[in-house]
């Protein structure tokens, strides 16, 4: 079995190419295909019965990691309950973290593979997966974080005059307003690169589009 990314093989010393038949190609359905799924496909094609060998040390380390994560999660939950009763800001931080995780698309990655950064065809890092139907974990966390930063920056820009004197408050308000716009712009650019949003067609109606009520619209319609 030859593991190769692509639909054809090319000879190193000549221009000859061998196109792999679709029936002999493993179609990847997840960012990180399960080992068992690949083995089942290989066994079906080769008529062999190859199994995954997991050493005793690997099994023990896997069990230890799961137990450590469970203990850490329980300890963090107990401390979080204690801290929330003592400091109200903890509830705000927890709410922002929940919002960030909920809007990051992490559940897609839990089902299809926790890949932080992908790889292009030539092996270079690929930070944004093109298309609507998939994402890397890094791009999801980045966009959700920038949306949180944008909202918090607007809050600070509006409340700065009530916290400090006038000269510094003006500078802080403008600085955080700029940070909010920059954060929102970065999310927009990410979506634009990922899906082609507002690039084809553009943001504004096309030349020749009628103006007036929605009945006359020949550009963007609902």
From TrEMBL:
Q: Which Gene Ontology CC terms are recorded? A: oligosaccharyltransferase complex
TM ranges: 63-81, 87-111, 136-158, 170-188
Q: Does the keyword Acyltransferase apply?
A: no
Provide this UniProt record's keywords sorted from A to Z: Endoplasmic reticulum, Membrane, Signal, Transmembrane, Transmembrane helix
Q: What biological processes does GO assign it?
A: protein N-linked glycosylation via asparagine
| Topological relation to the membrane, as annotated | Multi-pass membrane protein
What subcellular locations does the record give?
Endoplasmic reticulum membrane
Q: What is its main location?
A: endoplasmic reticulum
Question: What does the similarity note say?
Answer: Belongs to the OST3/OST6 family.
This one is known as Tumor suppressor candidate 3
What organism is the protein native to? Perkinsus olseni
- Give the classification, highest ranks: Eukaryota, Sar, Alveolata, Perkinsozoa, Perkinsea
């Amino acid at each position: 079995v030859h593991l190769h990314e692509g639909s054809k093989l090319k000879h190193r010393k000549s221009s000859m190419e061998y196109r792999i038949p679709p029936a002999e190609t493993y179609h990847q359905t997840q960012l990180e295909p399960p080992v068992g799924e690949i083995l089942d496909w290989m066994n079906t094609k080769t008529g062999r019965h190859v199994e995954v060998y997991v050493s005793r040390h690997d099994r023990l380390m896997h069990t230890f990691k799961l137990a450590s994560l469970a203990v850490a999660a329980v300890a963090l939950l107990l401390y979080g309950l204690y801290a929330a009763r003592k400091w109200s800001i903890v509830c705000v931080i927890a709410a922002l973290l929940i919002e960030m995780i909920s809007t990051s698309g992490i559940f897609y990655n839990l089902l299809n593979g926790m890949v932080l950064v992908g790889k292009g065809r030539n092996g270079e890092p690929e930070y944004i997966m093109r298309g609507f139907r998939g994402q890397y974990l890094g791009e999801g966390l980045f966009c959700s974080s920038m949306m949180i930063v944008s909202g918090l920056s607007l809050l600070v820009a509006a409340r700065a005059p009530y916290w400090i004197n006038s000269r510094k408050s003006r500078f802080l308000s403008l600085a955080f307003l700029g940070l909010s716009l920059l954060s929102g712009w970065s999310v927009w650019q990410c979506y634009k690169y990922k899906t082609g949003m507002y690039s084809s067609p553009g943001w504004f109606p096309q030349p020749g589009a009628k103006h007036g009520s929605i009945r006359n619209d020949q550009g963007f319609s609902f």
